[in-house]
Amino acid sequence: MENLAVSSFKGLLQINKGAFSILVRNSNRINVQKPRPPHYKRAQIEHLVKPKYFERGERELWFIPSASQCIKQEEEEAKKRCREQDNPYERLLAKDLRNWFLKSKLIAFFHCNPIKYDDKFEVEVRLRKEGMYLKKMGKHTVNMALEGTPYISVMPLFATHTEIVFCSEPKVDKLLKIAGKMRQHVLLAAVVEDRLLSVSQLRALRQVKDLTTARAQLVSVLNAAQSQLVSGLTYHQSSIAEGLRQFAEKPPVQHR
Q1: Gap between the Cα atoms of 221 and 52, Å rounded
Q2: Is 83 in contact with 134 (CB distance < 8 Å)?
Q3: What is the pLDDT of residue 240?
Q4: HSE (CB half, 13 Å, CA atoms) of 43?
Q5: Cα dist. 42→37, 38, 47, 52, 199 in Å?
Q6: How far is CA 158 from CA 32, 97, 127, 140, 154, in A?
Q7: Fewer CB in a 10 Å sphere around the end CB: N or C, the chain?
Q8: Whole-number pLDDT of residue 58
Q9: Domain encompassing residue 219
Q10: Cβ atoms of residues 189 and 109 within 8 Å
C-alpha cells in the first residue's frame, strides 16, 4: 500500500514534456466574400499604411516641395515684427537695466542651467548678503538697454540663457567664492572698473587686495626699471668724475 502511494505521488510530480494540440472549430462559418470589418483602430492603421500609386503628373499635386515646407523664414519674420513693435513696458525694463550697467562697478555674467526655484532663491540670498543683485532679461531688452553704450560688446554672451549680477563695489573675491558654490550657474566673464575680464583674469585680480595696492606695485616696478636705466647711462660719467676728484685731492709730488 505504501509503495502504491509513493508511485502515485511520483507520477503527479513527473513533468510531461510532450505538446498537446486541441482543435477548436468555430461555430460560425467565415464569409470570405463579405468579411467582418476590422476594429476601428486597426482600420485606421491599415488605411494609413495602404500604398498609393500616382499617375503621371499627379505626384506634384500631392507633394509639397521641401523648400515650401520650411517655416524658419516665417518664424524669423514673426520675430522681426515683434522686435519692431513698440512695447512701453520693455522700454521701462531697458531703462532700468541701463542704469544698473552705468552705476555698477562689478558686473558678472553667468550661464544658467535648468534650476529649481528653491536653489535659485538660495543663490539670490547669498548674493544679497554681499550687496549683489541677480537680474535676468531677454536678449532684445538687453540690446535695447546697451545700445549706444560701451557695454554693447557683451551682447555675444547673451546667445543662451544668461543672468547678470550687479554690485556697486568691485568685490571680486566675494564673487568668486559665491560662484564656486553656485552649481547651476557658470561664470562666463565680468566687467570690473569698466574693463571686461575673463575668469582667469578675475582669479589673477583676486590676488591683489585693492586698486591702490596694484597701482603702487606698478609704480615701484616702473621706478626700478627707470633707476636701473639711469644708473647704466651715468656709470661712465660717474667713474670719470670720481677719478678726477681723487686725482685732484692727491698731494703734489715734491722734487728734490
Answers
A1: 85
A2: no
A3: 80
A4: 5
A5: 10, 6, 9, 18, 61
A6: 68, 14, 21, 10, 8
A7: C
A8: 66
A9: 210-247
A10: yes
Mean pLDDT for 94-103 is: 92
Report the distance separating Cα 76 and Cα 197, nearest Å. 33
Model pLDDT for residues 118-177, shown as the tens digit of each residue: 989 999 999 999 999 999 988 888 988 998 888 998 999 998 889 999 999 888 889 999
- Tell me the three cell numbers of residue 3: 509503495
Per the CB < 8 A criterion, the answer to whether 97 and 145 are in contact is: yes
Q: Are residues 153 and 182 in the same domain?
A: yes
Mean pLDDT (the chain) is: 81
What is the biggest distance separating any 2 CA atoms in the chain, rounded to whole angstroms?
164
Say what percent of the chain tops pLDDT 70: 80
- Average confidence (pLDDT) over 179-201: 89
* Residues 184 and 241 grouped into a single domain: no
Cell readout for 88 is 512701453
Question: How many Cβ atoms sit within 10 Å of the Cβ of residue 21?
Answer: 4
Cell of 115: 534650476
**Joined grid coordinates for residue 23:** 482543435
- Cα-to-chain-centroid distance, residue 59: 47
In 3D, which of 119, 111, 132 has the Cα closest to residue 174? 132
- Give the separation between CA 170 and CA 9, rounded to whole angstroms: 90
Q: What is the CATH number of the domain that holds 201?
A: 3.30.70.1730
pTM flag (> 0.70): no
Q: Is residue 121 part of a domain?
A: yes
- β-bridge pairing 185-192 and 106-112: antiparallel
